[in-house]
Amino acid sequence: MNLDEKIKQELESEAKKLDKILAHEPGIFSMLANAYKGALGGWLILVGIFTFLITLLLFWAGYQFFLVTELNYEQKIFWGLVMIFVGMVQIALKMWTFMEMNRQSTNREIKRLEMSIERLVNTLIKTKEA
């Protein structure tokens, strides 16, 4: 077995280990559900309702802009600008939701690391005393 084959075998072994670790990671829906259980869960519900209302307004503005033919140019420009602005607001709200979801996930991982370090320290103290 030459060096290239050893490297390839080692990389495949590491990839399998990573696949096992990533298989236990929660999916996006469970991460989103956990975000609603967090400290800002009430705000997330409020933002979700507001995002839904903004989406309805976005569809209404799109309908007015693209499908209503009785509008003059000023009204078309108005509904076009409303559609652009509401789309940007919707993007901002969804970004905040996903950032909160990411924050909750990161906090959970930090807590796991803290507990692992605490267990390791306790194990080291016990072995040192023995």
Automatic annotation (TrEMBL):
It comes from the Bacteria. The chain crosses the membrane at residues 40-65, 77-98. InterPro entries: DUF6768 (IPR046659). Keywords: Coiled coil, Membrane, Transmembrane, Transmembrane helix. Residues 103-130 form a coiled coil. This is Uncharacterized protein. The lineage of its organism: Bacteria, Pseudomonadati, Pseudomonadota, Gammaproteobacteria, Alteromonadales.
